[in-house]
Amino acid sequence: MGRQGVTGWAPHEVGMGGLWFATGLGAAMVVYAWIVERHNIVRKHRISDCGLVLIFGATMVMTVVGDGPKDALEWFVAITSPIIFVVALWRLFHTNAPE
Question: Model pTM?
Answer without folding.
Answer: 0.79
